[in-house]
């Protein structure tokens, strides 16, 4: 039966598909736009097997996550110890697997960790402490009476903090080295973060995000190995964080391309690929949220979350739809957690390690994106590496050009639901501007569309 079925159908090439599409679209085939990813990366709107290189596709697939599933990790913002404890325990009871605890601008002396972590065993439940405080000091507090093996980590990126504030990172780097030594037997504890969200929230396209994160990773590995840390530990004990935007296919390809590129870095340090296990957090984007029609953010976050898990994230953080303009309500937090639960239990995506494997479009897009990002990464290396590129303004110039293109696209009619199309007839809800413009190290363009309001920065300069 199988032989007869396939013998009745001859293979179809791209020309045959184009002829059929031309017929179905009644002469409007040319209205299909290509996929534009960055300034010089364009892909046809459809691909066939003839455009795929089997060896390269196999190389891309070999670098992807091997174990299916991900952690559902909502953000809980610290206000006071007992309130934050209740919020964390509630989230864990109703769908969350772990917690990202936001301790931004919080002095750890005010955290009262026994109250904050009451009823939460860090040996069983991962908590990622998002803070700019000294990593060793935070660890000493959370490890008191917590057992010998902790999960979670310190979600702190000292280099990103330097870019935001101008405060140099040497002291925090020494703290990371000390923390890596303290936690050397805790394989599920992340000692630092490489925060790619900073670039996304400053207008980067996916190619720029990949190149800049890769350059920062190399910078960290070099700095840490200079202080006696093995490159394998430096790579495996980082938390790589990305924002996921609304371009569904390109965001899937972005995470797959990152794992592929990271394998090239591990090869350069002569690390066994089988032992390199990058741990990726994906967070739905705040950059593209609508304020005039905030409920559309639910739909946008659902699409972004699906991109994240199909791209192979280890940790998924879905931000509540109302978080840009108010403290999230119980309803919005529950909906955000449930997005991940639906993807796990109703889509079966948690049963497949690499759901995108074999898609001609996604395989081609992943490879092309990785190639362009590698070119930009090498250009940054030729200019002296990540820190030199920031000090010279190269990174900022790249981001400003990309951001200007996004603003131009939006102004020329690129559809964003609830932003420039299908806007509700209601008074807009304006976002709070939490950016600190007092530091000359930073620059924020006040003329940006309201949807382009970042949680960190909107543009940066040296």
TrEMBL record:
InterPro entries: Cbl-dep_enz_cat, MeMalonylCoA_mutase_a/b_cat. Signal peptide: none annotated. It holds the Pfam family MM_CoA_mutase. Residues 115-429 form the Methylmalonyl-CoA mutase alpha/beta chain catalytic domain. Gene3D superfamilies: Methylmalonyl-CoA mutase. GO terms for molecular function: cobalamin binding; intramolecular transferase activity. PANTHER family: METHYLMALONYL-COA MUTASE, LARGE SUBUNIT, METHYLMALONYL-COA MUTASE, MITOCHONDRIAL-RELATED. This is Methylmalonyl-CoA mutase family protein. It comes from Dyadobacter fanqingshengii.
């Amino acid at each position: 039966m199988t032989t007869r079925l396939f013998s009745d159908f001859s293979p179809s090439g791209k020309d045959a598909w184009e002829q059929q599409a031309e017929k179905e679209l009644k002469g409007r085939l040319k209205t299909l736009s290509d996929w534009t990813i960055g300034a010089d990366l364009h892909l046809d709107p459809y691909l066939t097997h003839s455009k795929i290189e089997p060896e390269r596709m196999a190389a891309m697939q070999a670098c992807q996550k091997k174990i299916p599933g991900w952690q559902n990790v909502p953000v809980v913002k610290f206000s006071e110890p007992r309130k934050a404890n209740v919020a964390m325990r509630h989230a864990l009871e109703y769908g969350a697997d772990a917690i990202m605890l936001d301790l931004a601008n919080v002095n750890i002396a005010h955290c009262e960790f026994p109250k904050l972590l009451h009823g939460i065993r860090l040996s069983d439940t991962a908590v990622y402490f998002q803070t700019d405080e000294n990593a060793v000091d935070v660890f000493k507090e959370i490890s008191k009476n917590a057992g010998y093996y902790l999960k979670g980590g310190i979600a702190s990126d000292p280099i990103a903090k330097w870019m935001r504030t101008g405060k140099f990172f040497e002291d925090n780097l020494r703290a990371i080295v000390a923390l890596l030594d303290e936690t050397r037997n805790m394989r599920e504890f992340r000692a630092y973060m490489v925060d790619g969200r900073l670039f996304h929230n400053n207008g980067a396209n996916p190619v720029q995000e990949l190149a800049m994160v890769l350059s920062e990773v190399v910078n960290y590995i070099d700095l840490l190995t200079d202080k006696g840390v093995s490159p394998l530990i430096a790579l495996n004990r980082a938390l790589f964080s990305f924002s996921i935007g609304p371009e569904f296919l390109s965001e899937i390809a972005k995470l797959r391309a990152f794992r592929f590129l990271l394998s090239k870095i591990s090869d350069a340090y002569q690390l066994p690929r089988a032992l390199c296990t990058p741990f990726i957090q994906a967070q739905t984007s705040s950059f593209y949220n609508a304020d005039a029609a905030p409920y559309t953010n639910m739909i946008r976050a659902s699409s972004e979350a699906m991109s994240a898990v199909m791209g192979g994230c280890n940790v998924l953080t879905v931000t509540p739809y109302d978080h840009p303009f108010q403290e999230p309500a119980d309803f919005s937090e529950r909906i955000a957690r449930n997005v991940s639960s639906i993807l796990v239990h109703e889509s079966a995506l948690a049963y497949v390690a690499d759901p995108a494997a074999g898609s001609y479009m996604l395989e081609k897009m992943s490879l092309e994106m990785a190639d362009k990002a590698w070119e930009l990464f090498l250009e940054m290396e030729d200019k002296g590496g990540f820190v030199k590129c920031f000090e010279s303004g190269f990174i900022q110039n790249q981001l400003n050009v990309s951001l200007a293109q996004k603003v131009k696209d939006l102004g020329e009619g690129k559809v964003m639901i609830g932003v420039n199309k299908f806007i509700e007839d209601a008074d807009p809800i304006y976002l709070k501007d939490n950016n600190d413009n007092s530091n000359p190290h930073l620059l924020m363009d006040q003329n940006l569309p309201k949807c382009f309001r970042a949680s960190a920065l909107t543009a940066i300069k040296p």
